[in-house]
Amino acid sequence: MTATEPGAPAAPVWLRAEPPRVRRKPPLTLERIVELAVSVLDEQGIEGLTMRCLAQRLDVTATALYWHVKTKDDVLDLAVDHIFGDVPIPDDGDDWTEDIRVLIRAWRGAMLRHPWAPKLIGRPMLGPNVLARTEFLQSALVRGGCRGLHLAVATRMLANYVIGASLTEATWRRTADPGMRAAARDHVAASADTYPTLSASGHLDDTRWDDDLLFEEGLGAIIRAAVRTGTPD
After folding, report:
1. Fewer CB within 10 Å: N-end or C-end of the chain?
2. 10-residue block means of pLDDT along the chain (233 residues)?
3. The two domains 30-84 and 96-230 share their CATH topology (first three levels equal)
4. How far apart are CA 233 and CA 226, in angstroms?
5. How many C-beta atoms lie closer than 10 Å to residue 50's C-beta?
């Protein structure tokens, strides 16, 4: 009888071949939870994200998930801060207005890549990525002469503008196919007698003014207003 035959005594541990390694699941971490939550939000939106769905996708028990995050609101706050990490913080340049433009353009880009995000920005945002970028925005405005109430007003003007523009664009892109856009444009044009100003201004006519152009022009107007706001009386 050899050591390999059934019933043979086991060989000493030092002489036994090492058993094949079993690939175990990666440990559950906050980073894994948030990365998966962002993927689910991108696929299914805010309504499609549930704690049960998240636990199933992570292949963990609900108890394990709740060890890291207590509520869905926790997950949403973490997800928003996570995507803000993709917004580069520019180096301070000679032109503070251009520094703001670079930041706000990237902010808009992040929210358009994750169209669920603009709906959540109104929540208190205390994550390190959001705060770091807001700090940069305010520091640029301070370099431009904004202080006190003027600084708070200018910050809100810029933040509300980029959030509102991103929400409008994200919603329009998600719900309106090219045919619907053309129908909206034609409706305004066909009602020129009723809406003469809208018709003349190209309202809803994205063949005349595209979203990027409108956003850039609007951003410039907001920055010019911020400059005037920050100028001492």
Report:
1. C
2. 55 52 68 95 93 92 88 92 94 93 96 91 81 96 92 93 90 71 82 87 80 92 78 48
3. no
4. 14
5. 13
The Cα–Cα gap between 223 and 101 comes to 9
What sign does the CA torsion over 190, 193, 197, 198 have? negative
Give the 3-state secondary structure percentages of the chain, helix then strand then coil, rounded to 5. 65, 0, 35
Class of domain 96-230: mainly alpha
Domain boundaries, the chain: 30-84, 96-230
Q: Which of 232, 230, 216 is nearest to 138 (CA)?
A: 230
Fold of 30-84: Arc Repressor Mutant, subunit A (1.10.10)
pLDDT tens digits for range 94-124: 999 999 999 999 999 999 999 999 888 777 6
Neighbours of 23 (CB within 10 A): 6
Q: Say if CB 124 and CB 182 are below 8 A apart.
A: no
